[in-house]
Amino acid sequence: MEKIMLNGEYFMIKLVEASDDESESQSGRITLIKFNMTKWIRQLSRMPNISIFLKRLKHENVITEAHMSDIENEYSYGSQMEKLILIIQQSADSTSIYRFCKELRNMHPQLADLLENKNTDGKETDEYLRNVEQEFVLEFLRNTLIECLNCHIPCDEIHIALEEDLHGHVEFSALKTYFPQIFSNSTFVEGDKSFRDVTWKSPPHKEANEKVDMLSMTLDDFSTHIGDIMGQEIKPELRDCFQKAIYEEAITANIFEEMKSSQLKEVFAEYLGSINYGKGMEHVLKKLQQEIRENKLRSGIKTNIRLQQLREFDQPSNNLAYYQGAIVKPQTGNLLVPVHEFRTLIAPNKHWIAKETLRFLAACMNSRKNGTMHFGIRRDGDGCGTIEGIGMFNSKEVDEEISKCIKKCFYGEHLPFVMSCIREMQVISVRDCEHVVYEIDVIPSSLYSIKEIIPLRFPPKGPHVEVIFIYEHHSLCEIAMGSPILSDIEKICTLRLQERGIIESKVNGCLIDTSELRTTLISTLTGKDSKYITDEYIPIIVSGNMNGHVGVRNDIGMATAFSSAKFVLDFDASPDLRKSVENDKSLFTVKTAEDCLDKSQIENSSNPVWIYCNGNTEISQPRMNLKAWTKSRLAGVKCCLDTIRMSIPKGRARILFLLYCELTDREPLFDLARDMLASAFQDECIIVTQSADNCKELRNDVARRVGDNEMDRCILIGPDWKFLSDVVRSVFRPTSNDVCKLPSSSQAIVVEMTSRERTDLKLTDIDIVSGEECVIEAERMSEKELQENEHEHQRRFYKGSGTSWWNFYYHDHVGKRNCYKRHLGKVNKILKSKRGEQFLETHEIKHHPGAGGSTLGMHLIWHLSQFKETPENAFRCCVVKQISENTSLQIDRVRNFKDVENAKPIIILVDNKSEDAVILLRSKLHELAYKTGTPGKLFGLIILISRCPIAKDKNQLADDHILTHSLKGKEIVWFDKKYKELEDKTGIDVKTLIAFNVMRNSFDEKYIMELTTNILKDVTDLEKEVLTNLALISSYENDHPIPQSVFDKMMNKPQEIDNLIKVPFGIAHTRKELQMLTFNRTVWNMNVSVAMDLLIARRVSDQNIGGISIISQPLARAIVLSLMLERNQRLEDIVNSILDLLGQHAHEANPMSKIFVKIVCSLFKTRQIEEIDNRETRLKFSDLVFDLEKQETESPRQTVLHTMSRCFDITKDAMVGQQLARYNIYIKEFAEAEKAIQRSLAIKPDNSYLLDTYGQIFKAHMEHVL
């Protein structure tokens, strides 16, 4: 920013010193624009879609690839814009600056007006660029062409040469306009493919092959080649003469090679007119004949070597290599057996490859025929070919050129289908030479083909003609639009599409289940490496109007998707869809658009909210037309969307638009969807439909605002709603048991609790453990699915991502701790006791963080809850997720469910909850047990899991009292046995199971430090920023995962494209396009390095919000120590970094940010319990405060005050203010203590803890004075 400001001062001085004439000159205008770039830099820095802007500037050659890469490496959009402006100010010429303004105007006209200091809609800029273009084209024509009677040059050759000289794009219409100004005698008639009466001064440089294969050329190519040779080696006038002679006499390469000297003279002299057939011509023709003979001989020797198997269709080339001279004989068959086109080029270049690829692509799509285009294989006839290879190209540039031509030549509505059909280029090396073969596959699957024939504007360069390409009897045919046979061809292609669908449905039983379409849809919906949408996103469903299509409603079988969504916005007034999803259960909070005007109606719901946006016939609210809806319901729906946006961080929503029929601009959903796609939820929306026509109008409208690519990647099209429902359903996590089985006091009876009953009980604070947990889900799985499920849960458990009931279902995932039998014995003793001294008993398990206390508690619950064929021995068990005033009532409902008389005691697992919350739960349960329990009979048992700090003296507490990190005896044997078992299993790298290995080594500090140091070597610098913050928090608060969205801004960088290249998006998505297509489409934590992924665990918080933490507390501390040493940081620096991040989230309304704020505040508030003389007392301050105070700095106490004050200032958390006051009391700063507590009381004036602290200030002050 400082450099930009200095530049601004420099340009201001130049403007002030300039005369009036200089100010009005082009240089003065450029200086003014550069000055305005500095003046309006802050406005420019707020511009969204900067990645698209950079891509357009790169396309117009305003910036280079290196510039673009340098800019994208900047952290924020603002920094990126600042870097861009510096580059433009320092290195851009006048033309580039005007191009910058033009592209800026295309995206943001108001910003362009500010830069140009004019309100003329960019007319002066356009005029300047037109003049520059005109001068360049005229200069190019003067320098490269000369007049030559009876000569001609193809239009696309001149067009390509012009663009390569310019290093940019020029419309052919401009070339056509300026051409007569230089060559007035030259003729060009509309529809011609050549400019007449001109030729090259010197032919443009072409990278020819070492051996030109004339035998494989078509008649057209051969005639052009001979004409070019004669024109180049003798004189330009001969070019057209020989080309016309070869073509009209139908002389192929084989025929030409056999012609005698007298025959050559007889044929060609007739076409020369007044030009004599001389010795020079005969010599060149004889030389060409000799080349053909040598080529024949060369081919004859090599074709006897071997037959070559072609690359498997639609598969990567991997390490495949072809043998030069080998013969290939492709198979023939039905529409799924690919047709093969072989090309060897005279002068291979990216433009030629792109042109041939488009022709082939269109023909395969229209013929519904799979196909492969081979560049570098000579065509021999009878469908065979000879491998020769061509020179190496920059495949990235070729891919970009093909992509550019596809967008230019195909119409916008066809682009999604075209891009779905074509695969990326495969490069196969040729052995014993430096040549390669380029291959491109085309797969026009019936799943995403359209019924009509697809035309294109061809060729990509030169004058366009709208044509249709098609395969007929294995020959590629060109048909002009308007041809009388076109209607017959359309009928044939429609029948072929039906035929292809039938063939595909028979392949492998059902192609749909294994099709690439399904893979692509799932990948787009979930993102990279995620199985379910809810792993990383919060789903919202927008369901369109069904217009009474009952068949569509019957095909929609995705109840799991609807019930997993946080909101469903339904634009159909019928309640039938919701009722079919609920299936007689009450799953949703049902509201209407009118209800949403009161935000509290939808903000405070614990259930998913189903909002009828345009009427609800169930309560006699009819649908409205657009005008009435806008007046009566639009405000409510917009209010609802504002609430959704506020509750979900940017980039973390996944909006699914389900369009069942055509959506037009006369529908209320149209305007709403347009705003969501282009603005409020840009990059977070996906349209799911069975026909492109359903969203055609919406797609074209939004594409004008965000671009074709941005829009097309939002649209997923399937063959029908049964298929789409199956795909969508598969990306939502299956719901738990439909029926929860519970024991009862009657030994022979098992009580079943349905999902509806569970919903009616409103069990928001607890999870019930079924007596047959996981059994119903397991019975629904195939053997393969069971194995995959076991592998996944085992990997997650041993990696440190938490324990699930599946780990106990599979028996051998969890090893029994030495203390397991002792704890189980004590629990059984309590349950069997008949003393009746207590209504409520508590069994406490104390553990060091990460030592396995939570797993031990779940192990006990599993043993006590599961029927194991003896339900009479089981107890009703539940796990407390969160503690509120109503938690005890929910527990009582489960205890008495269908078993009011003589109910068995309920077992309650409470894992690492705060001391105040546990006291509240106990008191409420005691009160309830006293009121409703049976005298002399146990009401319930709490298994309390308590985390204890690791004592400074490790021998302070024996294993009998606390579960520590040390393994002993049978535990070590079990871990060693499991390690060997995992080593023998394929597909498991035991070294990556960090939690398992750390536990196996008894949390040895030296082992953890070495492990951490080695892993951190492969963590990126940006990831280390996240790790530093995350590790420090996990060092003190490892029980509470941090929502991933907290780090979104910090990690908002371009993604690694190498991994995305493999995704089946098609060739049109080249490396550069993937960078744009995937921008903000996936979240950062889906693309972390392997090393970072080893250190973090993904867990779910009490509020069912996903988050991450370091696998264990000792590992977190090792990471903090390693990074502090590496970066020469102090603990204070990391804490301040966390507080900087806290400042970004303190005022956010979404629950993820609120969780983060709460966790950071707890770092200053949570005081550990210490046991002294068998008495438990709380430490004076939190562990973080103690550690900050121990720093070897000049004033560690000032550091504590500074960090605590910052946290209090940012969060306004009254209890942080209390701790600040207490610390000031501790250091005898009574005036500051009084200020802090007064600020806290202003926030919570009636809080007894704060009032007590206020009194303690005066007490301590008095004691100090006395």
TrEMBL record:
<dbReference type="GO" id="GO:0005737">
    <property type="term" value="C:cytoplasm"/>
</dbReference>
<dbReference type="InterPro" id="IPR011029">
    <property type="entry name" value="DEATH-like_dom_sf"/>
</dbReference>
<protein>
    <recommendedName>
        <fullName>Schlafen AlbA-2 domain-containing protein</fullName>
    </recommendedName>
</protein>
